[in-house]
Structure formats: structure tokens, C-alpha cells
Amino acid sequence: MLTLSILGFLAERPMHAYELRRRISDLMGHNRPVSDGALYPAINRLRQAGHLERQAEPGDSAPPRQVLRITPAGRAELLRRLSEPKETEITDGGSFFTLLAFLSQIPDPVRQAAVLRRRLDFLTRPGSFFSRSGTPVRIKDEEDRYRRGMMIMARAAQRAERAWLEETLSELLGTDAAVEPRS
């Protein structure tokens, strides 16, 4: 998700690495801080792959600063990653939210909708944090109040996300049929 975040933010506008790190940290939250030890190797890999370029720009009463820009190859890679996310990028909430932060970079609403449809399909599958003998535990059957609380909060968040996905799919595709699950 770090690579996606780097490409996504630089597709919006060029920036120097310090600002890029701050914006990525803001997106990922305090639970997943971005260190220089992770950011700079990722930037270097993207530069070596031809997805980014670095240019010196004069600073205000300071030495020139290095500004990162996405290349046409980098933009193509961003669009590929956004259009064809891995299954874990759909099923993991944090990864999906990072993907969602840049989904507007895909110019085609139908391709945007395909990604959202995958997430909605995932959310409609039965699931639980806990299972007994391979069967998901239902909220009413969970005896531990804290585990039950986790399940209640997760269900509420999932309902809100599903409602947003259904509404957005209808808007993107211009039809109420967008909310019908695929068979």
C-alpha cells in the first residue's frame, strides 16, 4: 500500500519526500506510521522502475530541494494497481481505504465501479471474527461481552460501508441494478 500511496499522491501533484511522508502518514493513521527507512527505499525502487523522477527546484532562501514527480509509466502503473487490486487489497479494510483514497484517478466510472463491486461482494459474504468448528459465531451466541461488542461495532461499520457502496455504484452506473449482488 506504500507504493500505491506514493504513486497516488504524486499523481495529484509533485512534492518533496518530506511532504509525501507526512501525507502518507496522515492517510494511514497513527497505527501505521511511515518511516524514512520504508519510504526512501520504496521511492528508489519506483525511480529505478521509471515510475518516478526527481528534480531539483530552488528553495526559498535555502538550498535546492528534490521534488518527486510521477512519470507516464508511473501513472500507468498506478492505474493498473487501482484497476486490478489484489484480493487482500479488497478484503483488508485498511488496504481498501488506501485504494479508495486514489480510486478517482481511474477516469472510467465503469472501472471504478468494478473495484467497488468487488468490495461489496466481499462484504455480503457471511463472516465473523470468531468461529466454532469452522462456523462463524453469531452476535447473539457470543457470550463474552467484549467480543460481542467487537462484532456489534463491526456490523454497524459494515452496514454503513455497504450502504455507501450501493449508493455510489448506483451513481456511477446510473441504475438501481448496480446494488444487486452478482451471481
Named at the architecture level, the CATH assignment of the largest domain is Orthogonal Bundle
- Compute the CA-based radius of gyration: 20 Å
Mean pLDDT value: 88
Into which percent range does the helicity of residues fall?
Answer: 55-70%
Q: pLDDT below 50 for ≥5 consecutive residues: which ranges? A: none
- The share of residues in extended strands comes to 5-15%
Count of helical stretches: 8
What do you see in this structure?
This protein has 183 residues and is an alpha+beta fold. It folds into 2 domains: 2-75, Winged helix-like DNA-binding domain superfamily/Winged helix DNA-binding domain (Arc Repressor Mutant, subunit A), CATH 1.10.10.10; 108-179. It contains 8 helices and 5 strands. The chain is elongated and about 65 Å long. The model has no long low-confidence stretch (mean pLDDT 88).
Secondary structure blueprint with pairings:
Elements: H1 2-12, E1 15-16, H2 17-28, H3 36-48, E2 52-59, E3 62-70, H4 72-83, H5 87-91, H6 93-102, H7 109-124, E4 131-132, E5 135-136, H8 145-173
Antiparallel strand pairs: 1-3, 2-3, 4-5
